[in-house]
Amino acid sequence: MSELVYFLCAITAALCAFLLLRAYFTTRTRLMLWGGLTFAGLTLNNIALILDVVVFPEMDLQPVRAAFAFVSILPLLFGLVWES
Q: What domain count does the chain have?
């Protein structure tokens, strides 16, 4: 059951990234770009979680997941701090 939740979280993050980036390309609102890039990174983080827990349970991919999470938050942080 937890595998289904991980998969749904990855799909939801990918859908959010797609919708935000599509809206950015039509309206050119830069905050949508930063949000879309953040959700794209969170999608990679969720995929790494699925790989860690479901596909390769004997391997520890926690550092990879933490790196994806950290890097994915940076575009949104940049956009919120430097865009006014």
A: 1
| Coil/strand/helix, residue 19 | helix
Q: Which two tokens stand for residue 78?
A: 């940049």
Q: How confident is the model at residue 83 (pLDDT cuts 50, 70, 90)?
A: confident
The model's pTM: 0.90
Find all residues with CB under 8 Å of 15, minimum gap 6, and list them: none
DSSP letter for 28, please.
-
Q: Which residue range forms the structural domain that includes residue 65?
A: 2-82
Alpha-carbon gap, residue 42 to 1, rounded angstroms: 21
